[in-house]
User: What shape does this take?
Amino acid sequence: MRRSRYAILLATVLGTLSFASNSAFAVKVFISNEKDNTVSVIDSETLKVIKTINVGQRPRGIILAKDEKWLLICTSDDNRVEVYDTKTYEHIKSLPSGPDPELFILHPSGNPLYIANEDDNIVTVVNIDSGKILAEIPVGVEPEGMGMSPDGKTLVNTSETTNMAHFINTETQESFAHVLVDNRPRVAQYTPDGKYVWVSAEIGGTITVIDAATKEKKHTITFAIQGINADAIQPVGIRIDKAGKKAYVALGPSNRIAVIDVETFKVEKYLLVGQRVWNLYFVDNEKYIFTTNGTSNDVSVIDVKKLRTIKSIRVGRYPWGVVATKK
Amino acid sequence: MASQINNAIDQLLKRGLLNLALAVLASVTIFGSPHLSYAGGISTPKADALPEGTKLVPIMYLRELRKRPFPVSLLDIPPKNEGISGAHLAIDDNNTTGRFLKQSFSLEVFESKDQAEIVAEAKRLNDSGNSIFVVDVTAETLLKISDALKDKQVLILNAGAPDQRLREQDCRSNIKHTLPSRAMLTDALAQYLAWKRWRKLYIVTGPQSADKLYRQAFLRSAKRFGLKIVGENNFKYEVGSRRSDGGFEQVQKQIPSFTQNAKDHDVLIVIDEWGQFGDYFPYRTWKARPVAGTHGLYPTTWHPGVELWGATQFQNRFKRKWNRVMRPLDYNAWMAVRTIGEAATRSPSLDAKDLIAYIGSPKFSLAAFKGQKLNYRDWNGQLRQPIFLTTAKLHVTVSPQQGFLHQLTELDTLGIDKPETKCKGYGQ
Assistant: This one.
């Protein structure tokens, strides 16, 4: 506790110093605050909250659509996906989602939307233009993580209690392979070349790397942080850079982001961030990574080049998901 | 594969409807005849009815029907299917993973008031090839079952007896305990009282032998975490009609006068495991003091109001299936059956020998909506777990409390630790 406060203080000082080197053009970062029913909008240049949008109940998963014109939010307790204008922040419409939507992903073509219904053991497929439900795909108990192959042909869904990654053919909308991973899988992420799927297991404390072609487990990544109890190391969010070189994994209540070499699977560094970090996102052409820290109600900003946490930004209560515009 | 899954989903849907119907029937009969044997929701799939290549893991559930007076609050009257319902939910959870791995889990329930009958049934089941038992029985019955199956390849999962001696001097290597010992519960409470610096305690203990065991556990916890017992008193009651028109008028006068002469304290600890008087204490004590122990602020493995660590969907699943909320005994039984499911998913084979070895190995971990992995202590078979401290409606905190450290895992600050245990030769 004491250590992380010190780090944030230090980070704030460093952050202030590094402003001068910031790029000129700013992008918007959107943070869903699970307990506040709001979305915080942060300007990537000033690193300040410029707007707080009131949204539906229990906002969690958050993504962009329609060439970044739409902001889509899973409002879990309202059982729908809400759509907001990323410029005016006005509510455009709501999409049906099936019960208790948690995480979702868009087809690379921009439509349809695939939604994990945590309380109903299905993945719901929705056309974002017409708002029509196209299909419901049965999966394991408590579906959560959603990963999409770069070619859009395969969707990977994780189920938290069944402890599997389910591979779904997006054309036939049927699952065709099921790979056992460690306990309570949360997030599935393809490597940019589409060859591997990384799956985080929150309670298992591992990342399973699955060969996307053979569905064989290629490697299991484990973590060890000096002075931190192994029980507190709980991997959730995964992001891999465009070059496919480095992966960044949020480690929950250990308050760290692991930096991993994608080729060798070696953990190179642990970065201290806020408390109970779950999700993360590249911002401003991979200049920064923003992390959502649930129990400290803030977002940590990591300078990717320096691999250092440079600032923490106070947002709403229990920040959950994060997404950023590219322009 | 997909059509197979769809079939499985259809089956699950049908089962769900069937279970709902059974739950409704059960809830109608609960109050009518308190000792009617309840068969549970799902019929046991027989090995020959399974899809080709699917292996069956049969789990036996033994339950001793114990005579207890009804607790004073209508809200606390146990449902007839308490415990068994949790086991059935875990069977469903096991089977959703199982259908992808060609494994099927079944539950066979035996209930009786008679100890000898239960022990005989355990032997009979074992003779016919069953080796995995989930039991909700008294400590005495549990030891009899364990000793009757002493030299067999069996695993007995205790979901109903919190007695310390089962983890200590009377420990048995064929038993694992999913529910916490009384010492773990009282340690969880004592840590929080120490953290709050509410150190001066006055204890009121009920007349049951369970109350005396809880008191012993609490005294040890108080000493361990530096709390001071400023005074004690015993509460006597006659078991009688809990339902009479009126009664509060007398209780309102009785409790203040009972606590009038208590030496100054920060918290009044009430110990009443059967729920016969503990609920009379909050808001009625002579001095304005919080009440903790078995009532007021109390330690428990589970609470139906908890939504931490993704428990919402788990609570909802149970409610949809059984039309009531999940109680601690349901949760303890769920953990026992999930323990078997988790082992079956990851052990090299489904032979009892391999399953038991896997559960006892460091590789085993159970995800049970407690925010971290749970496993069994290798020196006495007790499941390590965080403990909720709750009021009737919601959790206040979860122990272990921050700052209570341990060289291996902070979960071992709850209960008797390895260096102090009297359990010898466990697992050998």
Residues 2-18 of chain A form the longest helix (17 residues).
